[in-house]
């Protein structure tokens, strides 16, 4: 039980709430997807209740987060990366593929501009 004693349920709840909000889900929508009551989800988000491993797996699936991040806040990226990922999380596979192509074109274009600037200096 030592590991469980070190878990910060308030921080866990905050991470769940922030991801829910990034995905533009209401508490009711997430609770419905999780098959739990809205009051129970609210208590989890407030850090007042813990949850089973089965619910952890469900949170991971629905919120598209690794368990390590939900529990400990590690294994993630910077806030700027998170904002970009947040935009993509709600997208269909088709939109994600298109976004990837656009991003590659954008990055390649900026690499060219950087090279041109260096060679002209």
UniProtKB/TrEMBL annotation:
Sequence ranges assigned to domain HTH cro/C1-type in this UniProt record: 16-70
InterPro entries reported for this sequence: Cro/C1-type_HTH (IPR001387), Lambda_DNA-bd_dom_sf (IPR010982), TransReg_Diox_bact_type (IPR050807)
A Pfam family: HTH_3
CDD domains for the chain: HTH_XRE (cd00093)
Protein name in UniProt: Helix-turn-helix transcriptional regulator
Keyword set includes Hydrolase: no
Superkingdom of source: Bacteria
Keyword flag DNA-binding: yes
Alphabetized UniProt keyword annotations: DNA-binding
């Amino acid at each position: 039980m030592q590991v469980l004693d070190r878990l910060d349920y308030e921080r866990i709840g905050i991470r769940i709430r922030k991801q829910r909000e990034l995905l533009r889900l209401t508490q009711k929508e997430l609770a419905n997807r999780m098959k739990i009551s809205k009051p129970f989800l609210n208590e989890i988000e407030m850090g007042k209740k813990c949850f089973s491993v089965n619910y952890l797996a469900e949170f991971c699936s629905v919120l598209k987060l690794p368990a390590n991040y939900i529990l400990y806040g590690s294994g993630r990226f910077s806030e700027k990366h998170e904002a970009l990922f947040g935009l993509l999380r709600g997208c269909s596979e088709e939109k994600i593929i298109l976004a990837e192509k656009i991003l590659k074109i954008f990055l390649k274009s900026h690499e060219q501009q950087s090279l041109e600037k260096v060679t002209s200096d």
